[in-house]
Amino acid sequence: MEIIELQNFSFIRIKGPDALTFLQGQVTCDMEKLEAGKVLMGAACNLQGRVIANFVVVLDGEDCLIRTQLGMAEILIKTLKKYAIFSKVELILDRQFTRVLGLFGGEGEKLLQETLGPVPKNVNNVQIFSDAIITKRPGATERFEVWLRGERSFDNLKTESEENESINSWKREDMLQGIFHITPKNSEKYTPQILNYDISGVIDFKKGCYTGQEIIARMYYRGKPKKRLFLLASDESISNDPKVTYTLDNKNYEEEILEVCNASAESKLPTLIFSFLKTQIVDKDVRLNLSTREEPSLRIQSFPKPPHKQVS
């Protein structure tokens, strides 16, 4: 079992009688499906259909509680406030969570039961306590996020392994699930389709209108994305800043590497890479290289297939 201090999150609390209906008109997930014990993944987009922030949201009492990336809560509050003037809502930067922990593997579930009480049994479920919130996150290894609040010390929930290695393990699980986090550096740069949000369930295409919805729906029903987020694997560590290179239809391409997760030498796990690549490469015999190497050195780890689309 590993216990990790996760310091890259921030929280927004949306209070008031119009909280759910207000968010329904602003975010990509269907807020009518949010209920006690459930976590929704979602995103907020601008009028041009580009992603401002991704998040998870839960019900904490009568409030909607959003967990997003560090630095994104302030950006998201500023954006949402533009549309909140006619709704009975209050948007608050929630600072009550003193620690956020990640637990995975081994005796994590047992430890949480002994410390707090019943834990979520299914992925994207949540248990709410007065001094903590536990969500079960997707992953090949069973893992939980624990949002601790209040003055209780939780002395038995201490990190035990080397910090950088543990955070790397958590990051690896996110990448294997295709989770690419929006940060202040890349906010409003990408469309939902290139991030695979149309496949992963971050967008609910059956819900009503929300900011950016018209453009996002048009891209989904009428357009085939030229690029998508790919997860790649390499058997070597990456320490400099190479590109992903390949040749497609006699044309050479160099693509930026968006995120890297190197594995320790002892683990013998591959290095994981996120990059936006041409979608055509899945149907053709395309060899993927690092720009620092001449021979093919990358392989596609996963590529989600889009669902069948029902055009009305």
Keywords summarizing the entry:
about 300 residues, alpha+beta, Gyrase A, domain 2, 2 domains, six-stranded antiparallel beta sheet, five-stranded antiparallel beta sheet, 16 strands, about 15% helix, globular
Describe this structure in words.
Mean pLDDT is 91; it is low at 306-312. The chain has helices spanning 19-24, 72-81, 108-115, 163-176, 197-200, 213-222; strands at 2-5, 9-15, 40-45, 51-60, 63-69, 90-93, 97-104, 126-128, 132-137, 143-149, 227-234, 243-248, 251-261, 271-278, 289-290, 298-302. The strands form three sheets. A six-stranded antiparallel sheet has the order 15-12-13-14-11-16. A five-stranded antiparallel sheet has the order 1-7-10-9-8. A five-stranded antiparallel sheet has the order 3-4-5-2-6, with helices on one face. The protein starts with a strand and ends in a 10-residue tail after the last strand. The chain is α+β, with helices and mostly antiparallel strands and 312 residues long. The longest helix is centred in the middle third of the chain and has 14 residues, at 163-176.
C-alpha-based Rg, rounded: 20 Å
CATH class of the largest domain reads Alpha Beta
Q: Would you identify the regions where 5 or more consecutive residues have pLDDT less than 50?
A: 306-312
Distance between the termini: 48 Å
- The chain-level structural class is alpha+beta
Beta fraction of the residues? 25-35%
Report the sheet with the most strands, covering strand number, pairing sense and barrel closure. 6 strands, antiparallel
- CATH topology (fold) name of the largest domain: Gyrase A, domain 2
Element order, helices and strands?
Answer: EEHEEEHEEHEEEHHHEEEEEE
Instruction: Count up the helices.
Output: 6
